[in-house]
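Notes from the 1:1 (GR / supervisor)

We went over the backlog. Supervisor wanted to see one worked example end to end before approving the batch request, so GR pasted a single chain during the call. The sequence is below; no edits were made to it. Supervisor asked that the structure be written out right there so they could see what the output format looks like.
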Amino acid sequence: MTGSSFVYVTFIRTTPDKLWSALTTPEFIKKYWFNIQHETDWKVGSPWKMVYPDGRITDTGEIAEFDPPRRMAFKWRNEFMPELKAEGWSRCVMDIEPVEDVVKLTVTHTMELEDAKFIGAVSGGWPKILSNLKSLLETGEIVLKEIR
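Structure output shown during the call:
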């Protein structure tokens, strides 16, 4: 593939249904995503956006795929940093796969643009968000309070 990509794989002690719920329930998402609200109706073709607590929009997009509890994909663009917004649209895919008594979550974030700064940015953010998600599902607590 040409372009830029970031792939993150983690194994979580949960079920596919519980992980799916954690990825699609707005109040639960806020717990591990640093209090950022995700707004959508979770239907293919529907708009999606992430909103900071102060009302600023961080990212926007569209639900591209929605196959509970196996796979979801987003068309995704950063909105709050002009240099990242100028790079255009990316695609984020989340694949959920049961493996023995755990669940494998693979997040693949791609752009057609070579050396995309946006993919560089998400490569720092995804590990923090997904570490919080894993910890929250397994222990009931997040590990990081700020994204920094």
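Supervisor's comment: The beta strands are 4-12, 37-39, 47-51, 57-67, 71-78, 90-99, 102-111.
Batch request approved.
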